[in-house]
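call fold target=Luciferase-like monooxygenase
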Amino acid sequence: MSSNPPHQLAYSVLELAAVAEGDQPADTFRKSLELARHIEQLGYTRMWVSEHHNMAGVASSAPTILIGYLAGGTTTLRVGSGGIMLPNHSPLVVAEQMGTLASLYPNRIDLGLGRAPGTDPVASRAIRGHRFDAAHDFPRDIQQLQTYFSAENRSSQVRAIPGEGLDVPIYILGSSTESAYLAGLLGLPYAFASHFAPAQLLPALKRYRENFRPSAVLSEPYVIACVNVVAADTDAEANRLATTLQQAFLGIVTGKRRLMQPPVDSMDALWSEAERQYVGQMLSASFFGSKATLEEDLREFTKLTRIDELMVASHIFDHGARLHSHTLLAEVMQGVRVPLQESTGQFTNGGSIP
């Protein structure tokens, strides 16, 4: 047992920009900004937005634009991508766009990178064109991005203006051990998508830590785990609100996706036993309950995973209930302490992960 005093675990938000039944994307963006302002006041570290395409129920198809909107409407909250699907984009364009954001909002912009398409194969081909197999270039594209951001690239024939010489932290996102291995080799912080791929969480974290090589930006591993959280005043109310999330994952399982649906009193009439079990497996890194329940469950989760930061996705239909969920979670997280020795992720230059 470490003699160092425990410290508070960082906590953040992944905003999927889900479109609720009866809303338009414009309504979703307004609610996203309200949430960003809300969590900024509650002590959350950052809000990341995802990249998805060809999904009627998800409005985050242009993450860099949404990042600018959210950063412009807040003052201290870090805002970033969770993530930009790098094979969909030219590294130079990503460097220029994120460099523009970092110039507008200094020391507040994060760049999370993933290799998945964020869509179906048909839409992926429409996005990538002749670069349909660009996922194979993911490691090389990350290093190219790092080059564009470096001050040393000023003598190159191709430069990212703005972007060059700016501090834009890069995070590797993943849902498999392959991405964990790459993040470790590159010495970059790693964010795992356990909110939809929980089965690989522990193997991926193990592989990341075992293969971590100190880099110019990070001397020790830094891990973010994204989970689903629905908090309410009672366990019963949280479980009722969580049926919105269960319906969303049922749509993934059945291929019948819809806009975000209101909660129901029971899921029994909506799914078969096999579908219930399948959804349950996909949501095994999900936490529903009152403050007392969440405090106990999240303490066990952080003890098991030894993460440095908890990122939460909250798929809640009623906007007021979602804001309240994040208020309750902030109160819970202020009581979740982890030993100092378990919080790695120190920058080589002596600082810490922003």
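return ok
Confidence is low (pLDDT under 50) at residues 1-5, 340-353. The domain at 7-227+306-322+329-342 is CATH 3.20.20.30 (TIM Barrel).
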